[in-house]
Amino acid sequence: MTKIAIVGVGLMGGSLALCWKGKPGLHISGFSSNPASVDKYLKRGVVDSATTSLKEAVADADFIFLCVPVGLISDYLEKLQQVELKPGCIITDVGSTKRSVVECAARMKLQGAYFIGGHPMAGSERSGVEAASLYLYENAFYVLTPPEGTPEEVYNRLVELLQWTRAQIIRVDAEQHDDIVGAISHLPHVIAVALVNQIAGYNESNGLYRALAAGGFRDITRIASGDPVMWRDIFQSNKPVMLKLLDDWNEEISKFRSMIETNDGDGIMDAFKRAGKFRSELPERRKGVITALYDLYVDVPDHPGIIGSVATLLGSHRINLSNIQIIESRDDVPGVLRLSFRNEEDFEKASEVLKPYYVVHV
Ligand SMILES: NC(=O)c1ccc[n+]([C@@H]2O[C@H](COP(=O)([O-])OP(=O)(O)OC[C@H]3O[C@@H](n4cnc5c(N)ncnc54)[C@H](O)[C@@H]3O)[C@@H](O)[C@H]2O)c1
Ligand SMILES: O=C(O)C(=O)C[C@]1(C(=O)O)C=C[C@@H](O)C=C1
Prior knowledge:
The protein has 362 residues and is of the alpha/beta class. The chain has helices at residues 11-20, 35-44, 54-58, 70-81, 99-107, 152-162, 174-205, 208-212, 215-221, 228-237, 239-261, 265-280, 306-316, 344-354; strands at residues 2-7, 26-31, 49-51, 63-66, 90-93, 114-120, 141-145, 168-171, 295-300, 323-330, 333-340, 359-361.
């Protein structure tokens, strides 16, 4: 029996657990310091066993996945030095930054266990085991950062276990990872949060700002709803990269400001053309980096029974919905439903079926 211990069974840890749950020869043990969370993991059936004792959770484990906020990964690595680990055990994490985690692991004495950094490039603004999904990692890139000298057999053992996620494993140096992911994931989160807060400030004196906020605002700001603790830890652990990126961002914005100030219409059009070209060349609906895979957004009138009508319409065309969520529901504006599908075929079909009746956004 291969034992996999998951420390922190939230969105990421819970989604990993779901990929392995019920597979022959695998036992998944969940750890949380909070007894109520342990009960929740068991009740939801995402793990085979769960405990508030780290020692018990990792005893005899072949793999240990640290799935807690980045700021806590070093604490758990330290704790792992003090408990008995199975010789040859592989410890990994799913933290969004890698340099600080890998450096910390290199300082630890892990009693013959190996540490390989990890970061699945998939996720969402939601958190907790309630948001976990068997399909979260499908088709996403999953970055691994093995330290120099990691035996190939050890690396391959982890890759083999991760095949259950259906993610595409990619080996990247930790420093390069933080530079790139800083730019394509961390910087956009800063921008989204700053933008929402700027508008929220205007809205304090005039509620029309929020009321009129439409598709463009929604598209660029979904990620502003991310978990505050998770993002605090990410920015703090990627500080030098973030500071450089924000300096570059200030420069980009200043260029825009000056194009508007000097009525440089050609410059503005050129900026849109270059951006449109780069964006159109992004990997087709690759999961994770900002866009969620196979999610449709549907504007719906705010009246009772609307969710039932949408679900019935899809059901009558034999389209399988994997999730449905109300992401805006207020008296004064139409609601927005987020519909998630497991595959491209259902996603495309749903878009066709709904378009004659509703405003549909991708
Ligand atoms: N959410 C994403 O989109 C995403 C994507 C890729 C990687 N990550 C990384 O994955 C890790 C987990 O993020 P998540 O989205 O699953 O968050 P989450 O909040 O859904 O889960 C975090 C888990 O850690 C546990 N936890 C929190 N504080 C704890 C503490 N003090 N002691 C013990 N357990 C504690 C929580 O109970 C929960 O089970 C983070 O390091 C994050 O950077 C997140
Ligand atoms: O899709 C989202 O909501 C995410 O924030 C996912 C996202 C990203 O920026 O792409 C966020 C953090 C991760 O470390 C990896 C993926």
